[in-house]
Write a structure and sequence with these properties.
Blueprint lengths: L4 E14 L12 E13 L15 H11 L2 E5 L5 H9 L5 E4 L4 H20 L3 E9 L5 E5 L7 H5 L1
Parallel strand pairs: 1-3, 3-4
Antiparallel strand pairs: 1-2, 2-5, 5-6
Length: 158
């Protein structure tokens, strides 16, 4: 593996609720957590400030996280009660976000994609997000790890 610099940033305080409607146990009921996400970043060379990623430049990602997860109700796109959740949203009883999968593993992958879209557009592939840990509480977390296929191509062109 090629040598690289790494750093991480945690975004926390996103209280939301969801249900895993296919689950045979208690997870089929609506329940909530205050989610947090730790993004791990990687670069083979530092930026002009000596950073892998300037944390202050991640405000757009933080806003995207808040819009998706702060005081929202997450529903799977195939939830058989989706029509009822949408009606409650229209009545102002909940702030609905429909996702392919509301689980923590899928949420980690979603945030990984958002972080990499931001970094690729802004930095042209110099830095990437290689891991996201999605945490529902202090005991339970899920991770998604991958290097985006475009990572490092900018160095080849240098």
């Amino acid at each position: 593996m090629t040598a690289a610099y790494t750093c991480s940033k945690t975004f926390s305080g996103y209280p939301c609720c969801h249900r895993q409607w296919r689950h045979e146990g208690h997870c089929r009921f609506v329940h909530g957590y205050s989610r947090s996400f730790t993004c791990a970043f990687r670069a083979r060379r530092l930026d002009r400030n000596g950073f892998v990623v300037d944390f202050s430049s991640l405000r757009d990602l933080e806003a995207q996280l808040a819009a998706q997860f702060d005081h929202t109700f997450l529903a799977n796109a195939d939830d058989p009660l989706l029509g009822q959740w949408q009606a409650l949203h229209e009545l102002g009883a909940l702030d609905l976000r429909v996702m392919e999968n509301v689980g923590m593993e899928a949420s980690a992958a979603l945030v990984w994609g958002w972080a990499n879209a931001l970094l690729r557009e802004r930095d042209g592939g110099r830095a990437c997000c290689w891991r996201v840990e999605a945490r529902e509480n202090e005991r339970n977390a899920a991770r998604f790890e991958a290097l985006p296929p475009w990572f490092g191509l900018a160095e080849v062109a240098d």
